[in-house]
Design brief:
An 8-stranded mixed beta sheet has the order 4-1-9-10-11-12-13-14, with helices on both faces. It has a 4-stranded mixed beta sheet with strand order 3-2-7-8. Strands 5-6 form a two-stranded parallel ribbon. Helix content is 37%, strand content 20%. The protein is α/β, with parallel strands linked by helices. Helix 1 (49-59) crosses helix 8, helix 5 (179-186) crosses helix 6 and helix 8 (255-269) runs antiparallel to helix 9 (273-288). The chain starts with a strand and ends with a helix. The protein has helices spanning 49-59, 75-83, 129-135, 149-161, 179-186, 196-206, 210-216, 255-269, 273-288, 300-311, 313-323, and strands at residues 3-6, 10-16, 41-47, 65-67, 69-70, 92-93, 100-106, 112-117, 141-145, 166-169, 191-195, 219-223, 229-232, 239-241.
Length: 325
């Protein structure tokens, strides 16, 4: 099964200010505020939902195709993804814009001042999926993640017109979208991904109840944080999957992307929906134990040991061949 993952590609520049922002603000001068903070630390981390998902899939050997837009500064990031099993040949490189970037400073009270530069992401709307499909000899599924809104709409419409199954996963873009846009991105999806809060927001904005949504999508996958995930299909009993035990909780950023990486890899392997969700939960656990979205190391033997402990030897045996263990 060949899966393309479309969505944002970005880098995060995270800085730490040892003082308090509040101490630097003068109440009656806020209309002319001009401040510069001398920071102690800088972390530059790779991110973007599509790149995060592809990184995880690449670690599992699922050979994902990354679809998105980046700038000429993407070379180092591309090399990193290539080394980790991601097909980056369908990434559009802008001639004038930098790769999307989030710049954020956090103070001693954990208050934050940040800016998000969309940059080259705005050119994702110029990517034609047919070109991608032709290059890799066909696509079995396109995962449409948070991206330039016009790109998300174009990719969805192209999937429908070319009869390519697609997964709807608007995540961070859900807040800015209206009901009409969400309905257009959802109707006919093979898979619909969201977390528990987004699930309720989708229903509120579309005006569709649970039954209506299940009649319009093939499979609805909802992540439940520490409680795992639930998979729903019309006319079938829900499938509930728990999370493996965490060794520590370091940083929740990127956990949802890691779940999707595991779930989609399960589909590539031809696993059941339950097994795919279990792989997703195991991947999510690895990410929550590390700081950063692509900073974890997937040791396949250890992965299988922990998977066995969480879901049993029979479940683990199904994965053994796919992991090469």
């Amino acid at each position: 099964m060949r899966i393309a993952v479309s969505g944002s590609i970005a880098t995060d520049h995270l800085m730490t200010f040892p003082g308090r922002f509040a101490d630097q603000l003068v109440g009656d001068q806020l209309h002319t505020v001009s401040l510069s903070f001398l920071v102690d630390g800088l972390d530059v981390r790779r991110g973007g939902v599509a790149a995060n998902i592809c990184f995880g899939m690449g670690q599992l050997g699922a050979a994902p195709v990354l679809v998105g837009a980046a700038g000429a500064d993407f070379d180092e990031y591309r090399a990193w993804l290539d080394r980790h099993g991601v097909d980056t040949e369908s990434v559009r490189i802008s001639e004038v814009l930098h790769t999307a970037r989030f710049v954020c400073t956090t103070d001693a009270d954990h208050n934050q001042i940040g800016s998000f530069y969309t940059g080259a992401m705005s050119e994702a709307r110029q990517i034609e999926l047919k070109t991608v499909a032709d290059r890799v000899d066909g696509l079995d599924l396109v995962h449409i993640g948070a991206d330039d809104p016009e790109a998300m709409m174009r990719h969805t419409e192209e999937c429908r017109s070319r009869s390519i199954p697609f997964a709807a996963d608007y995540s961070q873009q859900l807040a800015r979208m209206g009901g009409e846009e969400i309905r257009a991105l959802t109707d006919g999806a093979a898979y619909l991904f969201s977390n528990e809060y987004e699930k309720a927001l989708i229903e509120t904005k579309t005006g569709w109840d649970e039954a209506e949504i299940l009649s319009r999508v093939g499979t609805r996958v909802t992540t439940l944080g520490a409680k795992g995930a639930v998979i729903e299909r019309a006319g079938e009993e829900p499938i509930r999957v728990s999370c493996p035990e965490e060794e520590r909780k370091a940083d929740p950023t990127g956990v949802g992307d890691a779940f999707r990486a595991g779930f989609l890899s399960g589909l590539v392997w031809g696993s059941s929906l339950e097994r795919a969700a279990q792989v997703g939960c195991m991947m999510a656990t690895l990410v929550i134990e590390t700081v950063g979205t692509q900073e974890y190391t997937l040791l396949r033997g250890t992965f299988l040991e922990r998977f066995t402990k969480a879901y049993g030897p029979e479940a683990a045996d199904e994965l053994r061949g796919h992991l090469g263990v």
